[in-house]
Amino acid sequence: MDGVGSNISTSQPLIGHTFVTGKAVNGQCNQTASMPQRFLFFFMLLVSFLLVSCGEREEAVEVSLDKRQEITFRPQLPAITYAYLPQYSNTESFQRHHRLVEYLAKQTGLPIRQVFPDSFADHISMFGQGKIDISFSNPFIYVKLANRFGAKALTRIVEEDGRAEFRGQIIARKDNKAIQSIEDCRGKSWVAVDPSSAGGYLFPLGHFVDHGLNLRDFKEVVFAGGRQENVILGVYAGLHDLGSIREGSLRVVENKIDIDQIKVIASSRWYPGWVYAYSPRLPQDAADKIRTAMLQLDYEDPGHRALFDAAKFIGFIPSDDRDFDPVRELSKKVGLNLE
Known about the structure:
Elements: E1 19-20, E2 23-24, H1 35-55, E3 80-84, H2 90-108, E4 112-115, H3 120-128, E5 134-137, H4 139-149, E6 152-158, E7 165-166, E8 168-173, E9 189-192, H5 198-210, E10 220-223, H6 228-236, E11 242-246, E12 262-267, E13 271-272, E14 275-278, H7 284-296, H8 302-311, E15 315-318, H9 325-334
Parallel strand pairs: 3-4, 3-5, 9-10, 9-11
Antiparallel strand pairs: 1-2, 5-14, 6-14, 6-15, 7-13, 8-11, 8-12
Helix pairs in contact: 2-7, 2-8, 3-4, 5-9
């Protein structure tokens, strides 16, 4: 027999007894109850229940219909959406940027709220769908957004070291004696951040190509779901021989692991830094207000210092599309599609 009961054998007792047509076997009762007796038993049980219920009435509670509270649905008001490319967790993204978002909204008088793409690909898709108005991303993602959807550069950030450029790093465990140089990476397992990560993949890939290593020269190349932390933890745990991250990412996990156990094998050349870009759907006057508010921020101003310290950079500079030509040239060299 198929179905739920097909695995139950009626030849075996269920919890010590098997009930067959009203008879209890296995030693409990060998008398067959007649139909009138059973009816009388259930009738008396029902009457007893009703008597008890009637005898234990609860006091009535008066309900006033004059005191009511209307429950209304409050739809989310239209706002300019701001998204940080998710190279870290959503919690980290919020902690880094919510002060800046609040400042921009207050300074411009525009409603601005932060949204959280789940991945690099999701960030690109949401921008194309009009769900992201202001994008903060690496230059490789920016070039894709510009080529596909007409994104326009707004500003570039100044890193904590005072540069408006950044670079990638190639890391390994310090106790991994088999990897001491770029050439030693040949035939090894490489974990990178994401195929669209600049510092965590594209820049190190360009560095490998410049030193004679191509993708086929590695045992494997795997990606860590767009999270810098995952790359570092994967190398630290010995799951992969080497990893690639953007410079500065080791500080993100310094409270989780002993980062002294990680060594930097090499660093890529410098490339134009992270960029704010805006959607062609955003009115130009709104974009201009946001750009002006960004450029008015001053790291030396005590009122702005906490905002910058949280965001992990120290300023803004104006930017336009031509700043990112080096990224386009690198993409062609390593054979990556920017469309």
